[in-house]
Structures are given as structure tokens and as C-alpha cells.
User: Fold these one by one.
Assistant:
Number 1:
Amino acid sequence: MARPKRQRYVSFLPGVTYFKPRGIPLGKLEEVNLSVDEFEAIRLADWKEIDQVKAARKMKVSQSTFQRILSLARKKIAQALVEGKAIKVKGGEIVMPFGFGRGAGRGGGRGRMGGSFSAGPGGTCICTNPECKNEVSHQAGIPCYQMKCPKCGSPMIRKI
């Protein structure tokens, strides 16, 4: 009997969870499922450029487990790009620290969510476009992921 998977800590849920090749009808596409923890590993290692030891600590897994998650995520993304498949971000055994991302992940719904200071007062929202990296002051009552960058129109996320 296999040992059950430990829950992985994720501090960001993507606003967009489906990516597909342009010009191909959805009904004709095969999908590659990228779990939320795999998405988080890609975000931390490749987008945030955090070294694997620190990224593993953030997700509360060992460095070798983080490496396996990251390798599998990269393989799935490469498969989708090479074979022209859609990428669907969904699932995984995750926990979200209270007050992060778009809401509580599986098992992470402790305490009250919502209200004008649900992610905390003040702070900064940053553009998800790596070339832009525009920062704006957080507006109370409006989650960063619901905002668009005033410079390039890309989605914003909360600066952690």
C-alpha cells in the first residue's frame, strides 16, 4: 500500500486555469492536467526564480519532493507545447495559508474569509507579466487577482 501524499502549501491560485493552442476548437483538443502544486512549483522556481531549497520550504516539502514536482510539471508543459494539447490547472492535495491567493485551498479554510481586509490592509499588487512587473497600491475590498495592470492589461497578483 502506497503512503498517502502529504499536502503541499500553495500561496497563489491562478486566475486563469486553462490554456489552449490558438485556432484549434476545444472539442478537438486533448488536455494535460497540471495540478495546483505543480503550477506553484513552476511559479516559484521559474517565474519567481527562487532556489529549490527555499521553494521547497515554502511548499513545506523536501527539496527532492519539490524537484520531482517541478520535473513532472515541466514535462507536462513541454508535452502540451510539443503535441499541441491544452493545459488545465486543477486538483492536487494543497493547503493555502490563511489570507493568501484567491481563497482557501483544500483543508485550508480556517477562519473567516472576505470583507474589505481579507488579504490584509495595505500592500502592493504586481503585474504577472514578467516584462512589465508594474506595481500598484492594493485597493481595500478588491482582490489583486481581479485587477488588470494599468500599463499592459495583464492580471495582477498580491506581492508576498
Number 2:
Amino acid sequence: MAARAAGFFATAVLARKLGADAFGLLGFATAITMYFGVAVTVGFGDIGAREVAKNPERATTIAVDATAVRLLIALGGACAINAVALVFVENELERSVLMLSSLILLPVSLDPGWVYRGLERTRFVGATLFLSQLIYLAGVLILVRFPADVVRVPPVQFAGELLAALVLLAFLSRSGVPRPSFRGGIRLLRQSGLITVTRLLRSLIVTFDLMLLGIMASKREVGLYSAAYRVCLMLTAIAVATHVVFIPAVTRAAAVGPAEVSTVLKRSLALTGAVMLPLVVGGMVLAQPLLSLLFGGDYSSGANALRLLLVSIGLLSLHGTMHYVFVATDRIRQQAGIIGGGAALNVALNLILIPRYSLVGAAAATVASEALILVASAVVLWKRGLRTRGAELLPAALASGVMAMVVSALPDRVPVLLAIPAGGAVYLAVLVSLGGLPRNLPVSGVDSAVAGG
């Protein structure tokens, strides 16, 4: 969370220095790179972490085999992006930004953070991520001053991500580096096939609206939507952080039975709800002043889109708790079908709504697709005997509601920097009084619920 805060601060600085037009250009390049970047991860993060959790003594071998294949895929993806830029992008500045953005695929392929998650050593991953974001922030503060400096942003990001990946690799290989086996890497790739499809569809939901806006709307509108989306991406990263700590616990529970998996899922929902619901609700209440504070007054007109996008993040954070259950219980094919339905709905609604409603239409399409995925995922798991009624979310929901009423009642002259901690204090007070603080979280590889079962 600290790492994402540093990265988000760098984004806020960029939005102010670059202006909406140049920031929209960067957002468009990021969306395209993000979609190609899915080909680099190709499910290794999930399947690989699962295999490491099952066989921790083979962690280094699994990491080396997977990284060799990931690196080859990253090189192919970077070449594809550069080819697209050279053939289809006429503006020299836009072409340069897109080509430089493709560099980020290389450190992504080298990043072994998924191995550490399988080993339940997430603190070290967080520390290196924080280091990479500090480098990114420093580079933005020193090297970016004017809109034309947008070409300097991708190399700065590349440097921070590469250093973090190399540090993680160095500590992982202290006991020696086995010779990479492409056969082992390909085996993981095959196991990851359906997750790859799921991730591509998931990425389509996240990036299609921004890419379509880049084609149909002005650079300014893309910049406004990019700013709103950056807020949501930070919250998504926080949500993922609440999910990944349960990967080993879900993996072990799956070997015992549905009741144990349900127990872990309930705990995951409790943690995600306690962390994410106040962020989503508070962001919706303070959307306009928040955008002005973070990115400047020019971005405040994106407030309605931000409110809808925050709703989608709330839905995503809930069905994200179920993703690792699908992985651990080998129900990946079912999840791919669910995500496929959400992606199809997203594409159709974007094509219909963006020409009419621009930013708000794109955000509404995202809400609809995330709602479909949540409902369908819950129904499938319920039929498989995984019982959770959502009662774990009730304390956080009530506390968030009280917080929203208090913050909404504050006079307009109260600065947003005071409204945020005031709302946070109210939320925590109500949550504690309701006994809604999450308990029995995974700590240092010990999972009390599964061990007790």
C-alpha cells in the first residue's frame, strides 16, 4: 500500500506537469502496453505461486523455468508494440511514447514476486515494490517539467521496475541458479492456458474503454478518464494485496474440502471489505474535490466517471477474493467463461455508450461487466458447496454508510485533506464498535483455520 501510494503521488505530479492532453497520451500508451503485458504474465503468477506453495523446495527451479519463457514472450510483445507504433501511429511524439512504454514488459517478465507470494514472503516483495516506486517518483520530480517531457516517463518507470526485479532475483538465487528448462517453463505455460485467456479477457475489460476513447474522443477526455482510472488502479492494487495473502491458505484448504475453503473465503471477504468499502464509498462522496486536489482543477469534470469507476472497483474487489478459489480448486475453465461473458458485455456496452455519453458511458459499461462477473462467480461457487452469505461484509458496509453521512454533512469549506481523516476516524470507530475488525489472518505461513481443520 505504501508503494502504491508513492506511485500514485508520482501520477498526480505527472498529471499536473503534463496537462490533460499529454497525460491522456501517456494513458493511451499504458493501456496498450498493459494489454500486451498480459501475454508476459500468462497466468504464471497464479499457477506458479500455487506450485511453489505445494513444493517450496523447488521454488528456485520453478522461478528459473518460468522466467526463461516469460522473457521470450516479453521480447515478442515489445516487438509487436513497436511494429504497431511504426505502422499505425503517425505523430512522432505519440509513437515515441508508445515504443518506449514497451520497455516495461522486460522487467515485468523478470519479476519473481509470484514466487515470494507462494513462499509467503510478501513483505520482501512489498519492500522492493516500494523501492521501485520511490525511484519512479524521484525521476518524475527531477526529469519531468513540461508536457513534451512525457517521453521521459516510460524510461524512468522501466528503471525502477528493473531494479526491483533484479533485487528479488538476486535474493532468490543466493543458493545458486539451476539451468533453465524450457520444458518446465512450457509445462507451466500449458497449465496457465485458461488463466491466460481469463487474464486477456480481464485486461480487455480494463483497457478497451480507454483505447476506444483514444480513438473516438479527444486527448483531453482520455486524460480526464486516465486520471480517474489512476485512482481506481491504486485501489485495485490495494484490493489485490488483500487477496494474494490468502493464496497459500486457499491452496491448503482446497486439499481438505469445501468447508475449509469456505472458511478461508469468508476471512478473505472480511479483510477485503474492511479495507476496500470505506475507500470506495469515501471516494464517491469526495470525487470532485479529490480529483482537484490530486490532479488539479482541470480534472474535476471527471468526477461522475470516477464515481462509477469506484463502484466497479468495489465489485471487482469482492469477486477478486473468489479468483484464487477457482485457481486452487481447478475451476479455471468456469472462471474463463464468466470473465468472457463480462468482457463481451463490456465491449458491447462501450461501443454503444461511449459515442453518446463519453467518459460516463465508458465507466457505466465497466460497472455492468463487473457486476455480471461478481454475480456469476458467487452462483458457481455456491453450487460447488462453498457457502458464504456475505455477512462478513455487513460491519464494514454499515461503518462506511455512517462515514458517508458524516462526510456529506461537512460544510463545503472544509478542505478535503481534513474530510478524509475525519471520515477515516468515524469509519474505524464504528467498525470497532461493531466488532468488524478482521481476525485470524494468514501470518508467517501459519493458517490457523486450515490447521485446526
Number 3:
Amino acid sequence: MAILNYNEIVKRKYIDIDGEPFEVMDSWVFRKQQRKPVNQAKLKSLISGKVTERAFHATEKVEEAEMESGTIKYLYSGKGEHWFCDNENPQDRFTLDNNVIGDALKYIPTNSTVNTLVYDEKIIGLKVPIKVELLVKEAPPAVRGNTAQGGSKQITLETGAIINGPLFINEGDYIRINTDTGEYVERVDNKK
């Protein structure tokens, strides 16, 4: 286990506080007047999903959480359950709870491989790439008119997620989405 100093607690690091893993969502090192520096961090519990803020002083050290990664296959969702299977053994099927999944399924099509976060031999979260390419299922036709500011419309993706996109996007297009913000990035050449 690696020990982190207060200034090494930065965004996207995993730390262990009182036996519970946290992801650092944001951090900011500052100094008030003549005092020692402080790292103000925004932490998300990977077990409960709650977000808290905590100040780490210059003398504090914290353990880096031992996170492992694995891969599983997302099969389908139905009746409030989300079904997955092991990549090596498709007969080994299981469900994951909504607080483990979060909003990751908005960016994961069915029958695709997903990276997992494993802590203490238990899946506690899904890791979605920062940018994903998805098929547009529904896109209303562009309407001429008030486009002086660049106009946008709501488009539905193959996963069922609804996002705002530019007027030139049509059904059947593939687009790249930023999963951190849930926003349209660019259109991609048709790949299938």
C-alpha cells in the first residue's frame, strides 16, 4: 500500500479512509495567510456513493486504496435489474446494484465489455472511458429558423440516453460523447 502526502491527493486517485475506498473528485491546495498549506478535496465514497469534502493538512498522510480492475460483459437490463456475465465464462451471470453502476449504463451498449473497479474482491463500480462512440437511434429533423447561436436538438442514443446535439446529426450516425459531462463531442465516420 502506497502512502500519499497531502499534496499527492489529486483528481482520479483512490484513497482509503477508515477502511472505506474513496475516489478523489477534485482537489485544491491553498494557503490561508501565514498558515501551512491545506488540500481541500472533494471525495466520493465508492461504497455508498455519497460525496463529501475533507481538508488534508500538510502533516497528514493517507493510504492509497488497493483497487484492482477486471472486465465483465453487460448483457441487458430488465425489470429494474442489470445483468452481467464473466468474460471467460458466459454462464456465470449476475446482477449489479444501481449504486454500483451509477449512470454508467447511459454510455454502455448491450453486449459490450465493461471495465470494473474491484475492492476487497468485490465489484464496487464500473469504469467508463472518458469518450465513447454511440449510435444515434432517434434524431428529429433539423428545422430552419433560429440558428444564429448554432441551434441544437435532443437526440436519443442506442443506450436510451437523451443528449443535446447539433442540428446536422441524423439517425444512424455515430457520435462521440464525453462521459464526464454527458455532452456531444463530435460526429464519427460510420464504423459498422
Number 4:
Amino acid sequence: MKTFTAKIDIIGINPFVFLPDTVLASIFKQAKKDKGPIQVRGKIDGHSFIQTLVKYSGAWRLYINAPMLKASNKKIGDVIKLYIEFDPVERTHDMHPKLASALKKNKEAFAVFEKLPPSRKREIIRYINFLKTDASVERNVSIAIEFLLGKARFVGRDKP
């Protein structure tokens, strides 16, 4: 696990920190890759987190989500102490039964879903999984099917 300190910055509404090159090199070596999202785990001011490193606008960033920020008791502009390493644990999300059922019933939507990149599939699955009520799940499963058929927008996207 690598240790470093960084100032919390913000891009748009998203707090993040830049990682030192030596820390990135260590994570790339552990992950055996230096492209695409990279799963990491660590501690922020002593509080555990799991997160994903992403490259945006040419720079690798560790986004500091609301629970991480709250746990650290820090704000934008503060310096935090981080421990970080590659997280080899595969992160999977089971498909909500109502989404699975709708895809089973609609072969055309299922075929489109199967051709999506893994990241887009996860995006749809996670979105449905995190809805709070049965009504919102049903409504959004319906919209997701329409999206897959090219008839509606879903999760801010025009078409699959």
C-alpha cells in the first residue's frame, strides 16, 4: 500500500485528488495495466474506501465521493493523507430480477444489451439496482428496454 498526501481539488461538481507518479506506477504494476478504469482500495485519513481510478483530460484522478469526503472530515482545498493500492477483488453487480425478466421477454432488447461494452452494461445494472421503490424500478426497467430499442434516452444517453 502506497502512502501520499494530496490537496482535494474539484472539477465540475466532483472532488478528486491527483496521484503522484510513483504511486501511479506502483498501482499500474499491481494491476498489470495502465489504461482504462483501475479498481483501488485504501484509506483516507484512516477511513477505508474502495474506488476506481480514472483518467480524465489526460490525468489520472481518484475521485473523492461524498462518503469518503464526509468520513475524512475534509473539504475542497484541504490536504488529506491517503493509503492506496490496486484492488484485485472483482466487483460484480447482480442484475435486478425485474430487469432480467424484461430482457428475457424482449429478445431484441436482450440482443442489444449483450452487444454493449461491459462498462455500459454495469452502468444500466447499477442504475436499476440502486433505485429505492418498486415503482421506480418498474418505470426505469421500461425506459431501459425502450433505450435498448433506440426509442428513449436512459441514464443521460440517447442510444446504446
